[in-house]
């Protein structure tokens, strides 16, 4: 039986987030430049996006470039930016074909002009698609996002637009870049590292975490199915006891 047939389509995680790790090691193991690994990583991005949309997952967030990634050698950063521009440009057709809407989170002002233009255009072109939302985290880090939210709330309080007593989980979440989307229910990290690397720290409070030794360029649709099957075997209690665990105490 095909792995996909083991998935209960009624119990899919509505939002899956992925830390795509291991491109560099994948390339080095093959005696190639790290950039070759990122290029192969794009193929996995395509396959996983299509597979997630076909399955019926509503939101897929991919950690494509972290704030910390700016600290990589200049050649690698510019190769990654070039790859992003090229991929976003070339893949808009595939996104349209698959009825996928593209969105982005992160400090997008940091991206170079070409990348930002390409991104804005793809977001605009795909804005009417409604099968799945693909969210690219670009120049993103959770601490950056949380600090920005705190700043924004503090500014409102300073201008008497907000009573600090009214700040709660819901209001805070509304000031994060992810406010239009539900929290991820499943977080996948490839490459055998057991870290969260400053990714969606607020949003994954109740997510199930799935770590696999596979390097990102080797991650296939079957690996996604395995992660979803594993997710469906887990009992999600949200800090409550079994018979009362319908969802988290707050809605974001
Ligand atoms: C981590 O591997 C991966 C990245 C920093 C970038 C991910 C980018 C892509 C898959 C290509 C472009 C993506 C899109 C959405 C168009 P690593 O370099 O940290 O690998 P290592 O841990 O083995 O060094």
Please, could you describe this protein's structure?
The structure is a single chain. It is built from 7 helices and 6 strands, in the order E-H-H-E-H-E-H-E-H-H-E-E-H. With 252 residues, it is of the alpha/beta class. Strand 3, helix 4 (113-125) and strand 4 form a beta-alpha-beta unit. The protein has helices at residues 23-29, 34-55, 74-97, 113-125, 142-158, 169-174, 221-233, and strands at residues 15-19, 59-66, 100-105, 132-140, 186-189, 208-211. Strands 3-4-2-1-5-6 form a 6-stranded parallel β-sheet, sandwiched between helices. The protein has a single domain, classed as Decaprenyl diphosphate synthase-like (Undecaprenyl pyrophosphate synthetase). Helix 2 runs parallel beside helix 3 (74-97). Bound molecules: farnesyl diphosphate. The site of farnesyl diphosphate (FPP) has 19 residues, from helix 1, helix 2, strand 2 and helix 3.
